[in-house]
């Protein structure tokens, strides 16, 4: 799975989301260990706990979390929190 496809799934699944997805380590072609890292900013996260925010991302990724994605490092922010964090 390409990073752009992961971004599209997240952005399509969470209202107003902007996702930036990278590969945090060199993929091991001998194993199916697709590790991704995502920074997701969305006003839909407002009032949600960190666990709820991450669950929204996992829900947006759907079956890909069990078929194409081995691990996902997540950073989720509301737009205000993202601006304050200076990411």
What does this structure look like?
The chain has 87 residues and is an alpha+beta fold. It has a single domain, classed as BolA-like (GMP Synthetase, Chain A, domain 3, 2-Layer Sandwich), CATH 3.30.300.90. The chain has four helices and three strands. It has helices at 3-13, 50-61, 64-67, 79-85; strands spanning 18-22, 35-41, 71-77. A three-stranded mixed sheet has the order 1-2-3. Helix 1 (3-13) packs across helix 2. It is globular. It holds the Pfam family BolA. It comes from Halogeometricum rufum. Belongs to the BolA/IbaG family. This is Transcriptional regulator, BolA protein family.
Can you give keywords for this protein?
87 residues, GMP Synthetase, Chain A, domain 3, three-stranded mixed beta sheet
What name does the CATH topology carry? GMP Synthetase, Chain A, domain 3
CATH architecture: 2-Layer Sandwich
Please count the beta strands (DSSP E, at least 2 residues each): 3
Q: Indicate the proportion of strand residues.
A: 15-25%
**Helix-residue proportion:** 25-40%
| CA gyration radius, whole angstroms | 13 Å
Distance between the termini: 25 Å
Please, what is the CATH homologous superfamily? BolA-like
Mean pLDDT: 91
Largest sheet: 3 strands, mixed
Low-confidence stretches: none
| H-E string | HEEHHEH
Number of helices: 4
Please, how many domains?
1
